[in-house]
Amino acid sequence: MNFKPLHDRVVVEPLDQEEKTSGGIIIPDTAKEKPMQGKVTAVGTGSRGEDGKVVPLDVKEGDTVLYGKWSGTEVKLGGKTLLIMRESDIMGILQ
Amino acid sequence: MNFKPLHDRVVVEPLDQEEKTSGGIIIPDTAKEKPMQGKVTAVGTGSRGEDGKVVPLDVKEGDTVLYGKWSGTEVKLGGKTLLIMRESDIMGILQ
Amino acid sequence: MNFKPLHDRVVVEPLDQEEKTSGGIIIPDTAKEKPMQGKVTAVGTGSRGEDGKVVPLDVKEGDTVLYGKWSGTEVKLGGKTLLIMRESDIMGILQ
Amino acid sequence: MNFKPLHDRVVVEPLDQEEKTSGGIIIPDTAKEKPMQGKVTAVGTGSRGEDGKVVPLDVKEGDTVLYGKWSGTEVKLGGKTLLIMRESDIMGILQ
Amino acid sequence: MNFKPLHDRVVVEPLDQEEKTSGGIIIPDTAKEKPMQGKVTAVGTGSRGEDGKVVPLDVKEGDTVLYGKWSGTEVKLGGKTLLIMRESDIMGILQ
Amino acid sequence: MNFKPLHDRVVVEPLDQEEKTSGGIIIPDTAKEKPMQGKVTAVGTGSRGEDGKVVPLDVKEGDTVLYGKWSGTEVKLGGKTLLIMRESDIMGILQ
Amino acid sequence: MNFKPLHDRVVVEPLDQEEKTSGGIIIPDTAKEKPMQGKVTAVGTGSRGEDGKVVPLDVKEGDTVLYGKWSGTEVKLGGKTLLIMRESDIMGILQ
Hints:
The structure is a homoheptamer.
Chain A: E1 3-5, E2 9-14, H1 17-22, E3 25-26, E4 35-43, E5 47-48, E6 54-55, E7 64-68, E8 73-77, E9 80-86, E10 90-94
Antiparallel strand pairs in A: 2-4, 2-9, 4-7, 5-6, 7-10, 8-9
C-alpha cells in the first residue's frame, strides 16, 4: 500500500538517534527548538498558487533532511512510523 | 437525495477502525494529532482564485484519504454519518 | 418589499426541523458544529476581486443548502425570519 | 456644507424605529446582531486595489440599506446624526 | 523648516472646538469613537503597491477632513501641534 | 568598517535633544507615541515585491527624518550608537 | 557532509564576543533586542513567490552579517554550532 501526499506535503521517515550522531550531526542540549533528521519517502505534486499553477517541491524522495522537532503528523504505514509535514517545515538537505 | 459540496469542500465517509488496521494503517497512541482514514464520496468544483478562475481539486470520488482527526463538520445524509471538510484538511491519498 | 443582498451575501430561509428529518437529513447530537438546512431566497451579484472583476455566486435562488448553525444575521422581512450570510458560510447544495 | 466620504466609505442616515416597523421590517429580539435600516446620503469614489484602480461602490445615494447595529462612526452634520461606515458593513439594499 | 510625509502619510492640523461648532459640525456625546476635524497641511507622494507603482492620495493640502479621535502621532513643528496619520485614518472631506 | 542594511532597512543616527529643540521641533509631553529625529546614514537597496522586483527606498543618506520612539534595533558601529529600522518606521523627511 | 538550506534559509556561524569587540562592533547593554554578528556559511536558492519564480537571496557565503539575538535554530554540523535562519532575520552586511 502506497501513500501519495497532497500538494506541498512530504512524508519523512525519522532517523534514529544513533544514526544521527554517527552521521556527524549532534543536536546540542539547549532550550532552542532542535532540528531532527529524517529521510524523505514521498512528496506531493507541489504547492498551488492562487492562479492554479503547481510549483514542484525542492525536496525529493531519498533526500536526508533536517526538520523542526514538533513538525508534522505521525502515522504508521506499512509498519513504519512516518511523519506527514509541509515542505516549509523542512530546513534543508544534508548532502 | 444527493449533496453537492461547494468550492473546495469534500464529503468524506469515515472508515471504521477494524477496516483501518486490516488495511495496514495503525495509528500509534501518542499525544500528536492522529490522521483518520476515509473514502471521498463527493467533491466540489474546485477552489476559486481572486480572479474567479476555478482550480479543480486533486482528490476525486472513491479516493481513500487520510485527514486530521478534528477536521470537518459531521452530517447524516441517507442514513450515513459523513464529514464535510475542505480539501486542505486532507493529507494525502492511499493507493 | 424586496431585499437585494450586496456582493457575496445570500439570503437563506431556514427550513424547520420536521421538514429536515422527513427529507432524509438527520443531524446527529454531538459536540461538533451541526449544519442546518435552508432555502436560498436571494443572492448578491458576486464577490469582487482586487481588480474589481465580479465573480458570480455558485448558489442560486431556490437552492436547498446546508450551512453552519451559527452563520448569518437574522432579520424579519415580509413576516418571515430570514438569515443574511456570505456564500462561504454555505457548505453545499442538496439536489 | 457638504461631506464627501473617502474611498469605500458611505454616509448613512439611520431611519427611526417607527418607520422601520411600518415598512415591514421587524427586528426580532434575539441575542444575534440585529441589522439596522438607513438611507444612504453620500458615497465615496470607490475602493482602491493594490494597482491603484478604483472600483466604484454598489450602493448609491438614496438607497435604503440594512447594516450591522454597531457599524460606523456617528457624526452630526447639518443638524442630523449620520453614520460614516464602509460599504462592506452594508448587508444589502431594500427595493 | 518643512516636513514631507512619506508614502501614504498626511499631516493634519487639528481645528479647535469653537471653530468646529461654528462650522456646523457638532460631535454628539456618546460612547462611540468621535471623528475630529482638521486641515491637511502636507501629504505624502502616495501609497506604493507590491509592484512599486505609486498611487497618489485622494486628500490634498488645504482640505478640511474628519478623522478618528485617536488617529495619528502628535508632533510640534514650527510652533504648531500637528498630527501625522495615514490617509486611511481620514474618513472624508468637508466641502 | 561599513554596514550595508538589507532590503528595506535603514540605518539612522539619532540626533540628541538639544539639536532637536534648536532645530524647531519640540516634542510635547503627552501619552501619545512621540516621534524622534535622526539622520539617515545608510539605506538598503529597496523592498522586494512577490515578483522579485526591487522598489528603491524614498529616504536617502543624509536625510533628517522623524521616526517612532520605539522603532528599530540599537547597535554600536564605529563608536556611534545607531538604529537599524525599516523604512516604514519613518514618518517623513524634514527639509 | 554538507548542508543545503531550503528556499530563503541561510546558515550562519556565530562569531564569538572577542572577535566582535575587536572588529569595532560593541553591543550596548540595554533592554532592546541586540543584534549578533556571524558569518554566512550556506544560503538557499531563494524565496519563491506565489507564481513559483525564485528570487535569489541578497546575502552570500562568506558575508559577515548582523542578526537578531533570538533568530534561527541551533544545529551542530561538522563539530561547529551553527544557526539556520531566514534571510529576513538578517539586518545587514558588514563590509
